Automatic annotation (TrEMBL):
<dbReference type="InterPro" id="IPR001041">
    <property type="entry name" value="2Fe-2S_ferredoxin-type"/>
</dbReference>
<dbReference type="GO" id="GO:0046872">
    <property type="term" value="F:metal ion binding"/>
</dbReference>
<keyword id="KW-0479">Metal-binding</keyword>
<dbReference type="Pfam" id="PF01799">
    <property type="entry name" value="Fer2_2"/>
</dbReference>
<protein>
    <submittedName>
        <fullName>(2Fe-2S)-binding protein</fullName>
    </submittedName>
</protein>
<dbReference type="GO" id="GO:0051537">
    <property type="term" value="F:2 iron, 2 sulfur cluster binding"/>
</dbReference>
<dbReference type="InterPro" id="IPR036010">
    <property type="entry name" value="2Fe-2S_ferredoxin-like_sf"/>
</dbReference>
<keyword id="KW-0001">2Fe-2S</keyword>
<keyword id="KW-0411">Iron-sulfur</keyword>
<keyword id="KW-0408">Iron</keyword>
<dbReference type="InterPro" id="IPR036884">
    <property type="entry name" value="2Fe-2S-bd_dom_sf"/>
</dbReference>
<dbReference type="InterPro" id="IPR002888">
    <property type="entry name" value="2Fe-2S-bd"/>
</dbReference>
<keyword id="KW-0560">Oxidoreductase</keyword>
<dbReference type="InterPro" id="IPR006311">
    <property type="entry name" value="TAT_signal"/>
</dbReference>
<dbReference type="InterPro" id="IPR052914">
    <property type="entry name" value="Aldehyde_Oxdr_Iron-Sulfur"/>
</dbReference>
<dbReference type="InterPro" id="IPR006058">
    <property type="entry name" value="2Fe2S_fd_BS"/>
</dbReference>
<dbReference type="InterPro" id="IPR012675">
    <property type="entry name" value="Beta-grasp_dom_sf"/>
</dbReference>
Length: 202
């Protein structure tokens, strides 16, 4: 193996160091001249939507992925509609869209441009409780109350659907999408049937 002189060793180290220096300079220059196009895209300004909520026309700007439930609670401050499972399984967020009961947690706000939405806040009229609200009160059809708004909105939908039979078993089946963790189901059914009689009488 040939001997490497001190002079040759220092020369080789110097060449290596200069190569690293040149590469570093190129890298630094490249960093300084990154085109603006490679920067993260700015968030969309949102979409303009108009819908009528509890009889009042609302004009809002919402994100394309904004959920109807969150828009109602966070932008319109209608917090009666509750956020439960966020998967459409508990029914706490039930409200009416064009008279049909839907789960607000599964619905994008941009899909409802021009729709008419009713939340629990809009169920009473002129300071008078809806028959379903009054019946829930009279029959103690709640305990903790978290699910109650969704239960009431579903109950109004059930009573307005002529395809659903009036017997208790049919009511329980129709309301099966609304979970009451406190187990007030018997009182809920009693309240719905009481409200049915009051609505018919009216």
């Amino acid at each position: 193996m040939p001997d490497i002189s001190r002079r040759r060793f220092l020369q080789s180290v110097g060449v290596s160091a200069s190569g690293v220096g040149v590469a570093g300079s190129v890298y630094a220059a490249g960093e300084a001249t990154v085109p603006a196009a490679s920067a993260a895209p700015q968030a969309s300004a949102g979409h303009a939507v108009k819908f009528k909520v509890n009889g009042t026309l609302q004009s809002l700007t919402v994100a394309s992925n904004a959920v109807l439930l969150d828009v109602l609670r966070d932008q319109l401050h209608l917090t009666g509609t509750k956020k439960g499972c966020d998967h459409g399984q508990c029914g706490a967020c039930t409200l009416h869209v064009n008279g049909v009961a839907v789960n607000a947690c599964l619905s994008l706000a941009v899909m409802h441009d021009g729709d008419e939405i009713t939340t629990i806040e809009g169920l009473a009229r002129d300071g008078t409780l809806h028959p379903v609200q009054q019946a829930f009160w009279d029959h103690d059809a709640y305990q903790c109350g978290y699910c109650t708004a969704g239960q009431m909105m579903s109950a109004v939908g059930v009573l307005g659907d002529k395809r659903i039979p009036a017997d208790d078993a049919a009511v329980r089946e129709a309301m099966s999408g609304n979970i009451c963790r406190c187990g007030a189901y018997r009182n809920i059914v009693a309240a719905i049937q009481d409200a049915r009689g009051k609505i018919k009488g009216a």
